[in-house]
Amino acid sequence: MEAAVVSSTEGVVGILLRKLGDFLCDKYVLLAGVCHEIQELKDDLESMNACLRDLAAAGDYAQTEQTRTWMKQVREVAYDAEDCIDNYWYHRGHHYHDESLVASWLRRTVIQPLETLRAMYKLAIEVQSLKARTLKVSERRLRYKLEAPATTSPPMIAVDSPGAGRYTTYDDLDRRLPALNIDESRLVGLRSKTKAILKILEDGGGDQSAAARRKVVSIVGFGGLGKTTLAATVYNSPTVQGIQHRAFVTVSRNCDLRALLESLLKQLTQTPLMMRDPRRYCDQEMAAGDHDLLRGIETWDISQLITMCSFLLEDKRYFIVLYDLWNPVDWENLKIAFPDNDKQSRVLITTRDRHVAENCCSDLCDRVHEMEPLPIQQSRKLFFNRVFQSDECPLQHKSLEKISEEILTKCGGLPLAIVSIGGMLARTENRTPAEWSKICARLGYGLGTNAALRGMRRILSLGYHDLPYHLKACFLYLSVFREGYEIKRGPLVRRWAAEGFISGTHEWNPEEAAEKYLDEFVKRSIVTPTRVASSGVVRCCKVHDIMLEVVTAKCIQENFISFLGNSQHECNEMMVVGHDKIRRLSIHGAQKPHGADKTWEQYDDDNPLRRKKKKKKKLQTRNKDSQDIVPSINFPCARSLLMLGCIIKPLPVINFAHLKLLRVLDLEGCRWLSNQDLHDICRLALLRYLSLRDTGVSWLPKLVGRLEELMTLDIRETHIRVLPETITRLGNLKHLLAGRYRYYTRTHRVKIFEPMEAMTLPCGLGRMRSLRTISHVDVASSFSTMHELCELPWLTKLCAFNSEEGGNKWGRFAASLSKLSSSLRKLSIIHWRNGDSGLEAFMELTSPPVFLQKFYLWGRLSALPQWISHLSNLVDLSLRENFLDGEMVMEQLGRLPNLLSLKLYHQSYMGRVLHIRENLFHRLKQLIVDNLPNLDELGFQGGAPELERLTLAFLKEPVDGIVGIDKLPRLKEVEFFGHIIVDSVVEGMVAVCIAHPNRPRVYRDDRPMEDAESSS
């Protein structure tokens, strides 16, 4: 993963160049006389950045030890220059708003100018030093002739063998040879997958004309899932071997179109019997044989090669495998070489990119086949077969079963990882649990040093290397999350933006661009979606454990991120070997010692190195000893600190007051957080992202007003209910997040807002004009503030809660809502007291929010507001305790043109029957029916033809049952939840789903039902 060096270094320099551009416009910089030196520093770094991009374009083979050392020096200069600028801004922006008038006047007129002069003097000295360092780094590049090679491709080698491309790279050959020389008897699950692909290739859907047409089938999935092996097995199957005109060619990341077409033509002309008519050739000599047919091929241009290929296949049945397609443009160039001649011809493509797969399969008869990880049983069988040449763990090695499960968990069903690691373990002489545990813990480093695993590392790294340069730093950042962590979309994109990895464009702001980046990772199969909304938006994802090992090792090596308490590397200390300074720090949740249910304090009493003392003097000694454990730590340079789920305070104790350059601070789950910690945090003037989620804190100090750069403040799942008046000074704040949800299902699709968990906002909200999200505000306690909502021009998400009876508190909110009609995209209105019709203020809005995409409405209504029928952009609608009756409600909702998800929570609908009639809910993909008290029948009568997920909870058994499931052709999943599970309803649904053509899965209490599972 040498290219990671380029990406991390270039990312640092890119961020710095943007800062220097802004910095040169500052009036104090102009007055200090250092403008010229800063401009020269910027010019030098721009030249270095251009060289870095050339190295990235040259590929991994351009990297040498000298090159990597030079790039490390560039990175450190850029980091130090950024520190210099941030230190200046810190002193310039360190204001004290909570002083008396006299103290404020003295500071503004006397102290502040003197501090600014001192900061400018220090800046001038540091800039001169940085300029000198930059010149020396540039000289070293010239001295040691560190130039990117002229070629932009890895070395090419010739391969002349049936089923292999004529030209390929060492890396391609290294990956393909094991797949092209496979022992099928040793591969678990391959036979069923091969049959599935052959069935897709042969299937014409009962239409003879469709079966005769050329069909494209794309196999798509994460690197290492076995796409190559599967394609090679299909290619060598007896069914395909009967096709005379066939070829297996490599496309690869750096596609050489000429080499690919030459390889394709030579394979096609090497078939045993060429059924061609010599009279059709213009040149009589070309009919003499295959050699004459391709005479002079090395002089042909691309168009001639494509024309010849199309000519050879024009009236033939053919089978072509295009292995490792990365770019849709390559398919656009190639597809004209494969004529659609009604001869049952087939093209099989393997790719990691979902977008490429879909682009290749544009016709109705084409198909995309998505590879999935091996189930645990097949993973065990493959692993033990590789290690012990047996389908099960032998009796003499039963002690290895437990650690084998840990290794298989890390492999995550990835055949490549199972085979590679199993092969390495098979060669170990000392087969003991301790030895295997050590290997498992050090697996991340083994990927780079162990010869048996080096090939796996290269394959896993290919998806990363193919990323554009601006995405690589974002992907490296994913290593801050521990193994198995479910990465949430919203916090991730907000952190990326706060880190400065992403700059906005004329089309998208930084956070919108960040969301596109995450979608790109999903599309390229280098992260795995774990929760997907009905709209197709990926809400949560994970990084495969093995891929995370690769990226983490590179981040540590390049000082991109440092780690503390990272159990996956068998380390409770700082992993900062060789790091001069810590730039980003991820503290993975500290756990109790293995083998004992002790508190951290009890553990300290048992540990002489970390013994907790009761007296103050001994406590100071302990802190000193803790710091001596990691003497090389230099926290003042840290830009981000993440302590996700760190329920025990880490050692050494972190002093937030010293982290003055910090931009991102995520303390989610840190229950040990104290009031003093909050005071120190609120002095971090450069902070842009602050998450106190699930920390248990109950108040925010007035000092929070000093965080003038803050963009995100997350206080969800805390006890903070009232925000201080100083919060309105945060003019850059975009996301203000509070409240708490309770979740009911494994997918978190069913949830309820916890009453009385909303926040109270002070007056002056109108000054926070950058706000985009307010979630959740109590309109009763913030009544005087509600009229200011209309002064927030960028507000896109608004969640409001009313804790009092009566609807008089909603008046100002409804008036402001009418003035936000053009900006709002997500709206939640929660009237908790259901004993009255408190939401009548919303029945007639002067200007409804017509661009709403997501709407949650909780509270009694006399009828559904008519303006809801005009929400043509509405995708997600949730209703709770509305007490609506009559099927006119369903008619009204069923005509919403873009509705994808409908959630009917408790007492939202009071009718006895709920019928989804024909011509209603054309695009609905998800329906949730949650304990509707009077429901006797749920019937599908031809409506909701796109429905995929049905989630149900009942207070009683519906008298007339659930009917019409067979009229839902795309149904994939039925889920039952709640305290009352009616067995007869569940069993009836299982029987219906077994008979359903789509074989949807049935879940009960988060567990798949056996009958339905086995049938699918």
TrEMBL record:
Q: Where is the Disease resistance N-terminal domain?
A: 12-97
InterPro entries linked to this entry: Apaf_helical, Disease_R_plants, LRR_dom_sf, LRR_R13L4/SHOC2-like, NB-ARC, P-loop_NTPase, RX-like_CC, Rx_N
Please name the GO terms of the biological process aspect recorded for this protein, alphabetically: defense response to bacterium; innate immune response-activating signaling pathway; plant-type hypersensitive response
Q: Name one GO molecular function term.
A: ADP binding
Ranges for domain NB-ARC come to 214-391
Answer whether the UniProt record assigns the keyword Nucleotide-binding to this protein.
yes
The Disease resistance protein winged helix domain covers 480-550
Q: Does the keyword Ligase apply?
A: no
SUPFAM superfamilies for this protein: L domain-like, P-loop containing nucleoside triphosphate hydrolases
* Ranges of residues in domain Disease resistance R13L4/SHOC-2-like LRR: 638-1001
Print the keywords alphabetically. Answer: Coiled coil, Leucine-rich repeat, Nucleotide-binding, Plant defense, Repeat
| Xref: Pfam families | LRR_14, NB-ARC, Rx_N, WHD_DRP
This protein's source sits in the domain of life called Eukaryota
Q: Which Gene3D superfamilies match?
A: 1.20.5.4130, Helical domain of apoptotic protease-activating factors, P-loop containing nucleotide triphosphate hydrolases, Ribonuclease Inhibitor, Winged helix-like DNA-binding domain superfamily/Winged helix DNA-binding domain
| Protein family according to the UniProt entry | Belongs to the disease resistance NB-LRR family.
This chain belongs to the protein called Rx N-terminal domain-containing protein
